[in-house]
Write a structure and sequence with these properties.
Largest sheet: 5 strands, mixed
Mean pLDDT: 88
Structural class: alpha+beta
Radius of gyration: 19 Å
Helix content: 40-55%
Number of helices: 8
Length: about 200
């Protein structure tokens, strides 16, 4: 369990008035290891002995609250490196069960104008067309953009499809006049920058 998972375990125990090593808490994290709890439903939680509807609701409410508090402020945030991009979306993206393709739209000074979900795909694919990406960028009068998507497997290694998509986005950006600065893939506590890896 990573640091986020340890913190979540402590918070869940406190919300249920249990000790972190109690039977109920241990059963919760046995059923939902490796921070899988962030995607658990009330119905799934109620299958655990000692968890009724009200306790299940307490847990899901707590998880939603921690997600919201972990979301960094986006607007006017300056992007100086791929790590800045990762830190901006890490809390909301790294544990998603489906691929999400997100676009960061930037000013001429690389301040974030907006962040928008362009596409939500399946377990291992997010279907994205350059038209949708640049429509969003033009609408916000963006000077440049950064593409971001997650790999639910936790491994951010780019697929051939990811590389091909990035090439298409670069070409489209050259025609339109809005530069694609980077494409970042988010995994579990790790990321890959196409710019850093020389894929673009």
């Amino acid at each position: 369990m990573n640091q986020y998972g340890d913190i979540l375990k402590t918070l869940v125990a406190a919300s249920l008035f249990e000790k972190p090593g109690s039977y109920v808490v241990e059963e919760i994290f046995k059923k939902f290891p490796n921070t899988d709890l962030v995607n658990a439903t009330e119905e799934e939680l109620m299958q655990i002995k000692g968890i009724g509807k009200s306790r299940a609701r307490q847990i899901t409410s707590l998880i939603q609250l921690t997600k919201e508090f972990n979301k960094p402020y986006t607007k006017d945030r300056k992007i100086k490196s791929p790590k800045d991009v990762f830190e901006l979306v890490r809390a909301e993206m790294q544990f998603l069960k489906k691929e999400h393709f997100i676009l960061l739209m930037l000013s001429t000074k690389n301040d974030v104008i907006a962040k928008e979900v362009i596409s939500i795909g399946t377990l291992n694919a997010a279907i994205v067309h350059p038209r949708e990406v640049y429509y969003a960028a033009i609408k916000r009068c963006s000077a440049a953009i950064i593409a971001i998507h997650n790999h639910p497997s936790g491994d951010p290694s780019p697929s051939q499809e990811d590389i091909d998509l990035t090439k298409r986005l670069v070409l489209a950006g050259n025609v339109i006049g809005i530069e694609l600065l980077d494409h970042v893939i988010v995994g579990n506590d790790v990321f890959v920058s196409f710019k850093e890896k020389g894929f673009m």
